[in-house]
Write a structure and sequence with these properties.
Blueprint: H1 18-29, H2 39-53, H3 57-77, E1 88-94, E2 97-98, E3 101-110, E4 115-122, H4 132-150, H5 161-176, E5 205-211, E6 219-221
Parallel strand pairs: 1-4
Antiparallel strand pairs: 2-3, 3-4, 3-5, 5-6
């Protein structure tokens, strides 16, 4: 009998509590999300790519919100849990910096059940607009934090290998929906399937941070 390969865990696993280690393993086992390809997803993703190229945060925010709303509605429809409201999306200009890292995105879940995603459009180093594929992956990364905490019973939403695989599964679903996302593999389209048409926040919140370097999610309370 072939010996079973040891589990591959990321470096921060040893620092977790026993409860967090159990959550880590549950997260790592789940490598995808049930987002079925659909023409509307492909169209929404391509509208976001066009909006990013315009370098307009307002236009990009509207397109990003449409895509997040569509993804969350479709995932929620496949969950037995009570459907949470999709996060409110904010698109800001230049990425904040911390040491040698740039802040890409931030997911915040408020005590009252509301949630928020922040993404930044321009690099801190050179002030250039973020590449569409990088921006979209950041947005989907924050959506995965929302899904972990509201639908998958993963309250710490750790950056496990499974977490990153779920993020990739969302991107691949958009590509299989017909979205042409610059910087990725070309997915053969099916023309017949892709139409060409164009409250007050509570006082405390849990924030999940994403930097350019890989690390576990840092959660903190905000007053």
């Amino acid at each position: 009998m072939k010996p079973q390969e040891p589990l591959r865990r990321l470096y921060f696993y040893r620092r977790l509590s026993a409860e967090q280690k159990r959550e880590y393993d549950r997260s790592d086992e789940r490598r995808g999300l049930p987002l079925l390809p659909a023409p509307v997803l492909g169209v929404a993703a391509e509208e976001l790519v066009v909006a990013i190229a315009s370098e307009s945060p307002a236009r990009t925010r509207r397109a990003a919100q449409r895509l997040v709303d569509e993804i969350c509605a479709r995932l929620s429809a496949r969950s037995p849990r009570r459907v949470p409201r999709a996060p409110r999306v904010k698109v800001l200009r230049t990425r904040p910096r911390m040491a040698k890292s740039e802040f890409h995105g931030l997911y915040t879940r408020f005590d009252g059940g509301e949630s928020e995603i922040k993404v930044w459009m321009f690099t801190a180093a050179h002030g250039r607009v973020v590449k569409p594929r990088t921006f979209l992956r950041t947005l989907l990364h924050e959506v995965c934090h929302h899904v972990d905490m509201t639908l998958l019973d993963l309250p710490h939403s750790l950056h496990t290998l499974g977490f990153h695989a779920r993020e990739s599964s969302l991107l691949h679903s958009l590509e299989r929906s017909g979205a042409d996302i610059p910087g990725g593999r070309s997915i053969r389209r099916e023309p017949s399937k892709v139409p060409r048409k164009a409250p007050a926040a509570p006082t405390h919140a849990v924030q999940l941070e994403l930097f350019s370097s890989a690390r576990s999610s840092n959660a903190r309370r905000r007053g």
